[in-house]
Amino acid sequence: MISYNTQGTCARRITFEIVDGKLHNVNFENGCPGNLRAISKLVEGKDAREVAELLAGNQCRGGTSCADQLSKAILANI
After folding, report:
1. With contact defined as beta carbons under 8 Å apart, do 15 and 3 qualify?
2. Helix axes 48-55, 66-75, angle to 10 degrees
3. What is the pLDDT of residue 65?
4. Three-state DSSP class for 18?
5. Rg of the Cα trace of the chain?
6. HSE of 33, CA atoms in CB hemisphere, 13 A
7. Which residue in 14, 71, 68 sits closest to 46, CA to CA?
8. Which pLDDT belongs to residue 68?
9. How far from the centroid of its chain's Cα atoms is residue 76's Cα?
10. Which of 18, 32, 60, 69 has the most CB atoms lying inside 10 A of its own CB?
11. Separation between Cα atoms, residue 18 and residue 24, nearest integer Å
């Protein structure tokens, strides 16, 4: 399990797995539960690099977002 401490978002941490290049078990601690559960469902089993590219630069209130932080977390671990 990979654990990534976020910066600049309501979610404090993201945990996930990358198995054979695919994302699994993405979980955000804190943040907006409905939106973050939706992101987790949408990216389950998807290619990690493609998800990172898709979500990179998505902004919310301060130049980053939970989705952008997930992108950074993925890129730091592939």
Report:
1. yes
2. 140
3. 96
4. strand
5. 11
6. 0
7. 71
8. 97
9. 11
10. 69
11. 6
DSSP state of 23: E
Which tokens go with 76?
């730091």
Inter-residue contact 20 to 77 (CB < 8 Å):
no
Can you tell me the distance from the alpha carbon of 24 to that of 35, in angstroms, rounded to the nearest whole number? 17
The encoded tokens of residue 55 equal: 């979500």
Mind listing the pLDDT tens digit for each residue in 10-50? 999 999 999 999 999 999 999 999 999 999 999 999 999 99
Tell me, what amino acid is at 22?
K
CA separation for the pair 49, 20 (Å, rounded): 11
Q: Measured between alpha carbons, how far is 3 from 61 in angstroms, rounded to an integer?
A: 24
